[in-house]
Amino acid sequence: MKKWKQNLAAVIILFALSQYSFSQKTNAINGTISDGKAPIEFVDVVLKPVTDTTKTAAYAVTDASGKFIIENINPADYVLKFRLIGFKTAIQKIKYSGSSIALGNIVLQEDANLLNTVVVKSEKKQIEKTAEGFVFNAVSNISQSGGTAIDMLKNIPTVAVDADDAISLRGKTPLILINGKNSAITNMNQIPASSIESIEIITSPTAKYDASAESGIINIKLKKNNSNGINGAAVLGSGFGAKGRINSSVLLNHKTDKWNVGLAYDNRFAGRTKRIKGERTNYFIDDEHFINQNRSDQRTEGLQNLKFNVDFSPNERNTFSFEALGNIENQDNDETLRTAIFKSSNEFYSSNKRHSLELERSKVAEFAFNYDRKFSDDRKSLNANITTSFNFDRENTDIDTDNYDENQIQIGDTFWQRTHNYEKENISNAILNYAFPISEKTIIETGYKGTFRFFNSDFQSADEINNEYVINPLASNIFDFNEQINAVYGLLNSYSGAKENPKWKYNLGLRAENVSNNGATQNNSDRFNNDYLKLFPSGSIQLNLKSDESLKFGYSKRINRPDLDDLNPFIDITDALNPHGGNPYLKPEIIHIVELNYNKEWNNSSLSGNAFYRNANNTIRQYAILQDNGVVLLQPQNIGNTVTYGLETIFSFKPISFYDANISVTAFEQNINADNLAQVQDIVSSAFSWYGKMINNFTPWKGGKLQVIGNYNSAVATPQGKRIPIYNVDMGFQQKLGKGNARLGLVVTDMFNTLESGYKNSTLLFRNNRISKSDTRALMLTFAYTFKSDFKEKLLENQFPTE
Question: For residues 797 and 137, is the Cβ–Cβ distance under 8 A?
Fold first, then answer.
């Protein structure tokens, strides 16, 4: 109750701050600049006294909405100039008496003479370097039209995605945010690629970000239109792999000076197949010695997203925003698993066929309230945000099992089972960020973030006995989990030298996180409580060797908290011989990270290199244990200490006008000390892994673009073996039609049908191999159309660049 009162007080303070900011009167000159259709960003606004136009009294630059504000000026007569390359300079005389002046909308005219000699391009770069990593613009990825966020992540530099959709950075799972916030959407296949504007990769997070970002942060930013007037677009796509698939998108938006209202809808329906082959040898079990398994899956899936947003800007200083997102997903999986078991003498022991029909329905709702406050000093800012998301997932499965003799003749009656797994989850965030200068070259950032998570999992298993389903209490359970994370941070940013090109940049921060969580099963056989406060320092120093060359050194302490899947003690027995489950007694990993980064840019190329060292205590890894009955149980364990060091590089180049490419490679060595486990002889003590990708972009003719992307992930070490290497090639082509407001696209994923996943484990007690192959090769044809030129192809940004 005390914590909720504190949170309520924080909300009241935020509201009071917003009212105070809103109510303040500002004596200033403000206005909006456009080309008559859309706002113009980066326009220089220069104020000069009439008495001496060689002097500059004040200066401002328009923001993304075309807005500007000039403050702290003395009453006098002035000349106001608006200038930007490609437009004629506009001049306006101002008589300023000390009272606020609203100039309204100022229209700039294109400079036809200049445009005839200079080609002005506004095409987004494929990769934009940031102080903490880079931003990958969805505009540059045309090879995943009709796909999901998973498909897009597969083609982003330094990000590795295996054939089972597991995402990793530098060999570890990153923290994934949506619009900068924790979300109940944890399955990236629930986000259509058409709704993504950009993906930010933060490899060097400061104290401002959650400490639970061992390998970094992936922030998925969803599209939001800011063009004036009424705008819209529609996309329709269809294709096939082993089964058909279809997708569509619609976006409508209306923006005025003070209001911006948008509505977007995306859907995706597809069918997929998968085949899995597994083999295991149990060395010290004579009866169940050799196990061969073959599994086939037939899956249909549907995904629908509905997004609504409204922004209100009562003046130049304040913006209030509300966003709502609804997500509905369904998956129907028809699975058949055949198992044959042989004795150590190769004699037949047993055989069975297990068939299951799994129906899953998932609903997610998210709501976000945001307040932004601008100041006359652009180094000062205030942002407050409250979000909440709900996830309801229901999974029902009917299972029938038949046993066979060595001649494949059925033995006995069919054994029928039913299971259900109902999950409810709520994640809420309360965020406050405030930045202010303490000197000309030093800024302090500080803030608070509260994360509140509630989770309930109800799993029930029932067996048919005498034509009635009887609940099996040994295989049924309810798991409740609650967690609160309250964090505060302070961050100092400073530089030395000229503001335009500082010689040195410094960053020093400290984050404090108090974690309180508890979990329990229905019968209280598994109950845990954790309550701890930890400090996470971070710091960096950057030397700008030249304006286009820099060197940066950084340190940070981070934490890897076990997620819900790791903690949930429920044992999944879909495959009775290879069950898996969570471990509620896991401890968090504590990690110390050191990085050295080098960046260099040339006229037509750029290079980014990052050497990193990571030392993790209480490392969490999946670990397989052979039971006395021949079953191998897979659970996460704190195996011990792991040291990882490696190099990450991104190289972009454009050797000729119609071709550019991006090459990225990540290579690392892992040294594992598994002192926490009794069977340390089973552990792989060291392993080298690497993965890379190459993105090739061609412009064969006007309005056409071809993209070919190749991926390779080497074998990755596991505690008891390794995952097999994976590799694939994707291709996308798009052609502008008519005046450019329509697009026709063709996509071929996994062109050579090479993408598969699997692992090979070898221990003193058993050896097992597993290969999984889905119908990853598919063809998609899409047609996209935008109406109203103000729209600027916003919905199509993941399918063609804005020009």
Answer: yes
Nearest Cα neighbor of 755 from 769, 774, 780 is 774
- pLDDT at 113 (0 to 100): 52
State the Cα–Cα distance between residues 596 and 551, nearest whole angstrom.
Answer: 7
Taking the CA atoms of 185, 189, 192 and 195 in sequence, report the sign of the dihedral they define: positive
| Residue 64 φ/ψ, nearest 5 degrees | -65, -20
Q: Catalogue the E-assigned strands of 719-794.
A: 721-723, 726-737, 742-749, 757-762, 766-774, 778-787
Where does residue 395 fall: left (phi above 0), alpha (psi -120 to 50 degrees), or beta otherwise? beta
Determine the Cα–Cα distance for residues 676 and 290; give it in Å rounded to an integer: 30
Predicted confidence at residue 146, as pLDDT, reads 58
Q: What region, left, alpha or beta, does residue 87 occupy, with left being phi > 0 and alpha being psi -120 to 50 degrees? A: beta
Query: By the 8 A CB rule, do 131 and 137 touch?
Result: no
The most confident of 252-256, 381-385, 543-547, by mean pLDDT = 381-385
Q: Are 245 and 269 in contact (CB under 8 A)?
A: yes
Over its C-alpha atoms, the chain yields an Rg (Å, rounded) of 29
User: What does the block give as tokens for 390?
Assistant: 């709900």
Q: Is the pLDDT of residue 550 over 60?
A: yes
User: Residues 132, 137, 141, 142: what is their CA dihedral angle, to the nearest 10 degrees?
Assistant: 170
Structure tokens at 135: 């931003």
Indicate the DSSP class of residue 8.
H
Q: Is 15 helix (H, G, I), strand (E, B) or coil?
A: helix
Mean pLDDT, rounded, for 696-702: 91
Strand, helix or coil at 21? helix
CA angle 198, 700, 753 (to 5 degrees): 65
Q: Tell me 665's DSSP state.
A: E
Q: What is the largest CA-CA distance in the chain?
A: 105
Q: Say how far apart CA 736 and CA 451 lie, in whole Å.
A: 45
Separation between Cα atoms, residue 311 and residue 619, nearest integer Å: 44
23 phi and psi, to 5 degrees? -85, -15
Q: Which two tokens stand for residue 321?
A: 């925003």
> What are the φ/ψ torsions at residue 22 (nearest 5 degrees)?
-70, -35
Specify which residues 465 forms β-bridges with: 468
Pair 623, 720: CB distance under 8 Å: yes
Nearest to 230 by CA among 197, 260, 265: 260
Q: Is pLDDT of 14 > 60?
A: no
**Whole-number Å distance between alpha carbons of 17 and 6:** 17
CB 780 within 8 A of CB 146: yes
d(CA 769, CA 624): 13
Could you please report the per-residue DSSP string of 313-353? -SSSSEEEEEEEEEEEEEEEEEEEEEEEEE-TTS-EEEEEE
Contact 210, 174 (CB under 8 A): no
Q: Is the pLDDT of residue 491 over 70?
A: yes
Which two structure tokens, joined as six digits, stand for 645?
């060091």
**Whole-angstrom distance, CA of residue 448 vs CA of residue 453:** 17
DSSP characters over 384-409 = EEEEEEEEEEEEEEEEEEEEE-TTS-
Dihedral sign of CA atoms 104, 109, 114, 118 in order: positive
Q: How far apart are CA 338 and CA 357, in angstroms?
A: 15
Contact 174, 215 (CB under 8 A): yes
The pLDDT, as a whole number, for residue 729 is 93
pLDDT in tens, 617-640: 988 888 887 777 778 888 888 888
**23 pLDDT above the threshold of 50:** no
| Confidence (pTM) | 0.76
Cα-Cα-Cα-Cα dihedral sign, residues 750, 753, 758, 760: negative
